[in-house]
Specification:
Elements (H helix, E strand, L loop, with lengths): L1 H7 L2 H19 L3 E6 L5 E8 L3 E3 L4 E3 L4 E2 L4 E3 L4 E3 L4 E2 L4 E2 L7 H5 L19 E3 L4 E2 L4 E2 L4 E2 L4 E2 L4 E2 L7 E4 L4 E5 H6 L5 H11 L3
Parallel strand pairs: 2-5, 3-6, 4-7, 5-8, 6-9, 7-10, 8-11, 9-12, 10-13, 11-14, 12-15, 14-16
Antiparallel strand pairs: 1-2, 16-17
Length: 205
Amino acid sequence: MKAIVRALVPLETRRLLRWKVHQAIRKLKAPRMLVGYRDPSGAWRQRTRISDTVFFYHPERITIADNVFVWHYSILDGTGGLTIGDGAQIGAWVGLFTHSSHIAIRIYGDHYQEVFETQKQGYPIAPVTVGRYVFIGAGAKILPGVNIGDGALVSAGAIVAKSVEPFQIVGGNPASVIGDTRKLDARYLRDEQLRRWYNEWHDNS
């Protein structure tokens, strides 16, 4: 059959058809950003955008404010309660974790699945809060019990095991403080309009 197609269809036409098929497959399989999100409270977040590839674990315990952006292939774990504030941006391949089985899996062995998660020993569960206008870079991991203050920046690939104060920039593994977003932002705030918009939320922090 292939030999017949090669004989009857010119090479350039075959290449064009193959390209069109590949484009259609890419379009069909490509992740998409979904606009709007209904919070477990029933509130509609009109300006929130979340990828259709984001995985929600215990979504009933996840609270997401408006104007939030969560990019492709991220994990939002609501086991211990997860809160994401207004305007937060979360990059691709980010994990926000509110539980861990790193001890329990060895303690329980083959009986691990026989005990409900909130009753397991060696199974830390703690809430995570992401403040307003926080940026979390691609590949970062936020561990149980961490609070990230308003206006903070988590660098790509950071592993955050302890809470981050408002406006701190953290990076590395384990993440440590490497800067302050207020210093980073200062040069842009010479523009009067930008300064006014910035102050709308910043002054209430």
